[in-house]
Amino acid sequence: MKNKFLLLFLFVSIIGIAQKVYQKNYYPDGSIQEEGWIKDNVKHDFWKFYYQNGKIKEKGHYKNGLKHKYWYFYRENSSKIKEGHYVNGIENKWWSYFNKDGQLIHKCQLRDNKKNGYCLVYKQNKLVKASKFVNDKKIKEWTDFSSFKRENNLNDLK
After folding, report:
1. What is the pTM of this model?
2. Which part of the chain is CATH 2.20.110.10?
3. Which of 58, 96, 144, 147 pairs as cysteine with 107 (C-beta 3.0–4.6 A)?
4. Nearest to 101 by CA among 126, 122, 128, 81
5. What architecture is domain 22-92?
6. At residue 136, does pLDDT exceed 70?
7. How far apart are CA 85 and CA 70, in angstroms?
8. What is the tens place of the pLDDT at every residue in 24-55?
9. Sequential DSSP letters for 116-140
């Protein structure tokens, strides 16, 4: 009886492994549109999406068909638009946003797709403004770094 159970367990395990396949999809002109892993008929693990010109549009991980972990988003000229964390398809933790030249312009702490924590605004790679949000509502704003630093525990920015 133990041997039959062990064989059944191995068979089910092998079938589970076989269900994870690498898939590529293409635009009508034949250029690659997206590529990544499929498991149980949904996107899973690492995926890349492309513009029709072949440049990367976005890349990151899926978990059970939902965006998960760290993601990167790009413009057609390959400059970065934004990057940040997803948890089960929802934006969370720090998100960074970039101008068309690739310079950081602001970054925000998010929870459940809403600003929740600090948002920092940069000009020419220098912090020029900071705000604190609770549930997408601004509760405080600072326009100079010294007052911001004095009033906040900078360990909160991690």
Report:
1. 0.81
2. 22-92
3. 96
4. 81
5. Single Sheet (2.20)
6. yes
7. 4
8. 999 999 999 999 999 999 999 999 999 999 99
9. EEEEEEEETTEEEEEEEEETTEEEE
